[in-house]
Design a protein that fits this description.
The chain has 574 residues and is an alpha/beta fold. Among the domains are: 99 residues, Luciferase, domain 3 (Roll); 98 residues, GMP Synthetase, Chain A, domain 3, CATH 3.30.300.30. The chain contains 15 helices and 27 strands. The strands form 8 sheets. Strands 2-1-10-9 form a 4-stranded mixed sheet, with helices on both faces. A hairpin with a 6-residue loop joins β13 and β14. α13 packs across α14. The longest helix has 19 residues.
Amino acid sequence: MFLNDHKNFLELLGHRAIEKGNEPAFTFLNGAGTEPEPLTYIELETAARSIASELQSHGLTGKQVLLLYPPGLDFIRAFFACIYAGAIAVPVYPPLIKREAEHIRNIAKDAECSALLSTAPFINLLRHQISEELSAISENIIETDQIPLDAAASWKPNQINLHDVAYLQYTSGSTGRPKGLMISHENIRRHEEMWGSHEMNQIPEYFEGRYRMLNWLPLYHDMGLVANVLRPVFLHVPSYHMSPLTMIKDPTYWLEMISEYDIVASGGPNFAYDLTAKRASMERLEGADLSNWKFAYIGADKVHADTLERFVIKFNKLGFDSRTFYPCYGLAEATLQVTAIRAEDEYHSLYVSQDHEISEQNMDGRSQLTVGCGSPCSGIEIRIVDPETCEIQEDGKIGEIWISSIANSLGYWKLPELTSEVFKATFLGDSSGTEYLRSGDLGFVRDNNLFITGRLKDLIIIRGKNYYPDDLEQVAESAHPFIRPGCTVAFSIEEESEECLIIVSELKNDVISPEDEKEITKSIHRALMEKASIRVSQVDFVAKGEVPKTSSGKLQRNEAKRRKLQNLYECLSA
């Protein structure tokens, strides 16, 4: 049951403002040497109503509005204002250069946004840096920090239908047509009922004034928004925030704040732990205490066992225990979370060979160690299914992960055929009528523990950002006229615990000069950085016919990756 029968987050935030009005809901940490910026429940609710009244006056109820904010609390005010106004929020990352602005413009166009919400200082910055592109994104700009708080009195209470779309979560694909997921009020309600309660039941003693969260993830990201904006309001726990740039530039500060504020829950993708283990200053952390940290959640990317081991070795003396790690699996299509281990349990790892044999030991010396991501909570069912035959796989067999959940998204915005394909799957022999979400991820279950082994649909995830390989391939092959059309393949491989992008291209001539090789390579690097904001780790040029394809001409990315890993390519040279 949603807390005290509040049907949605409008009612819940209103309840928090009445019952706990002067308690800090969110606090932004601006970095070393600056004062924290708190936001109480009553201040948040008043700001939400005042901004909502402005949106209502612009006729934006039921319309899509773009949320374009720098790191800080203004995004949170605006997001709840959209709920209060009955507008559909479209969170996006703040663009500071032209190529990023083009992607935001594509999202605004696809979502049919009627307005852009931001702050006056940030809009002035954007007008200075990308003036022309900003006008193309939206001509109806509302500076929410300029709206007086007394406008809250003009807000007209909004009746929310739980099946209505609350926000559009756009996938972070790099180029091509953006895909927006329709997340309903029912989705976020049910998701928090399941996972918020799940956490509360595991360590109930921490919910008596001791539970605090710290987030550095961007709030336009599903993990930043759902786990660190919606969940603390649901749980009634204080949530501290810091800029993603602060964490990346100074990971020591992340741990300092966890210690200073006795944080219970904080985390991020694997690369954050890897970066922190490599760069955090033990001198600055002298005297720090991480023993209160109980949920070091790790997800949104592949979890590397060696990263976890290095992190524990380095920070064990500060009270960090391996049982603090909270590996989890989720995706935006399911609102966020699908599985997780139990709090204070040891995570479990298994080896997976190239032949998909699963073992406790590295029998062939080349198997990959895979970390288990736990099990689903009540209300979620996962199945491992053969993606070709749609037959259920037995435990220990690898297949596609299918998910039945009351928190599964409504589907893709304006893409009904893709929605039907992805969200309405049924497995062979099932007469129950249950519809499953096809995750596109490969994995297996052992002892009720889900292990992720790969991506069926070749989605490339690097540092928590999704890249569609066909988009990257198109950019790469158009970078230089010497590249054969339709004969470039993109995939990622693991190097030193990080996923790295590899490009393999066939050239029109099987002999190239060193000068040509250098020029083509530079062109590919430049094109992908300019058009997709991604760095290429390696470019290989191969002879005609070397890029593997099916009989119908489709690229075989997994086979291309296998050949690369086994050094089967003969790269062209002068």
